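Hello forum,

I keep getting stuck at the same step: I have a sequence, I want structure tokens, and every attempt I make locally crashes halfway through. Rather than fight my setup again tonight, could one of you with a working pipeline run this one for me? It's a single chain of 393 residues.
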Amino acid sequence: MLKVAYLSPLPPQRSGIADYSARLLPYLAEKVELVVYANDLEEEGSFAGCEVRPLLRLHDEWWRYDRRLYHMGNSLHHDAIYMYAMRYSGTIMLHDYGLHHLIADRVRHHEDRRLYLRELVYAYGQDGAERYWRTRGAIPENLFDNPLNRRLLESSLGVLTHSDYVRHQVQSHVADLPVSVVPFLDMTDSSQSVVPFSKASFNVSADTVVLASAGQITQNKQIDMILRLLVQLRRENLYVHYLIIGEPMVDLGLEEQIVELGLEGVVTQIGFVDDYHDFLRWIKTADIILNLRYPTIGETSAVVFQALALGRPTVVFNHGWYSEIDRDACVHVPVMDEESLLEEVRELVRNLAKRREIGRAARQLIVDQHQPDVVAEAYRYFLTEQSRRAWAG
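Reply #2:
Ran it on my machine without issues. Output:
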């Protein structure tokens, strides 16, 4: 069997990629010989039936493996993994195409602006240096336009992604780099039934249509747009309730907006849900999921896949990876088009049969294409092919 070093955040870290690895590892371990390296360990242990070692051990052991697999996301959870990926080249599972937020977090965490200068110069040459000195090294508010991933991509031996969108982006910048798309992972466990919470638990009648957004609550989730949507639906005597399921990552002023728009009693903020099964229960409690991420950094939304797997009709903007979701299984609206959003959501609120039809198609999509064994085999195949080609010279 292929011997693989696997680097990723693991639970209990508050990371979608940690949850992803927890789901994938038991299946991948059946197909390759795995040793997991985690940066929050001081001694060896085990997780999901796999041996887990402190990340520092990789310095002495990197040469033992046929492949090193680095799970890379756009948060500080990947700080150390980023450095190891460039020191000991391997395969990158690129969960987010853009890494500017990670670079910015690394600069702040290490209190070293030279990290930022080096990335800008590597990515943009003299223009990057001029940009740095012109702003005195200040990190801009908009981190979406410049992915700052060139150093990582050019240091890697191959890249895995979850979307054609990211594959095209990578190939357009590093043409000779092997890149493959693997299906995203069904993050629900079909062997366990997911029972929704009672609507009465948050003082809503059983016939009220519940909308929800879930995951980390950030500016690009467009919560303010959804609050305006609620106002319009209420004006049309469509009685809806809105759940915000997740931890606000920045101060979005939600309380003030809710009061200003007269939506007290219409919005319930659940906050961070530390139990994964309860998180799924909250998603299933909703009749409609709204995942309006814009702009995109090339992410693949675990929340969207969780909603599809649970048969929840889900509304997304028609861009990036989101545009690749089967049209029968998801509702696509033009980016930032509030009129189209209102039209589509209004129809879903009114039409129970349509919600059920989309939900059935969503669930079938996950069953057919995104089961863990299928995903693990896609990993095994790519890693094995990379190893074979390396030995063949």
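The first strand starts at residue 3 and ends at 7. If your local run keeps crashing, start a new thread with the error log.
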